């Protein structure tokens, strides 16, 4: 069981939602949590790779371990691909870029995945 400071989780939400979840320009899930076989929607691999790379870097900067960052970032991209078509994801991303706010869709996914770290 990994225990992380609640402050780190809050920081992760605020920072990762902005940078890791797509508001920052886009430049195996944990051992205890199996990944879904195949998400409903498949995003271009280069987008997935860029998202995971950016998300992991920012999550580590916010105080998560390498494994925790890997878990959260893989979880979030899996959730996005399971819930939103690529077109929907880009629309949410574009709107977030304009408003500079984390959309509810990103927040919901972030909370779900960060909660998995606390289990």
UniProtKB/TrEMBL annotation:
It comes from the Bacteria. This is Uncharacterized protein. It comes from Planktothrix serta PCC 8927.
């Amino acid at each position: 069981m990994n225990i992380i400071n609640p402050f780190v989780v809050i920081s992760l939400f605020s920072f990762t939602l902005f940078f890791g979840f797509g508001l920052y320009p886009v430049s195996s899930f944990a051992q205890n949590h199996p990944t879904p076989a195949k998400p409903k929607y498949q995003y271009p691999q280069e987008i997935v790779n860029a998202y995971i790379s950016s998300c992991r870097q920012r999550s580590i900067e916010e105080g998560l371990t390498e494994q925790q960052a890997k878990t959260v970032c893989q979880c979030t991209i899996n959730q996005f691909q399971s819930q939103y078509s690529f077109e929907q994801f880009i629309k949410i991303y574009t709107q977030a870029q304009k408003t500079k706010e984390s959309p509810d869709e990103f927040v919901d996914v972030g909370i779900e995945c960060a909660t998995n770290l606390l289990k």
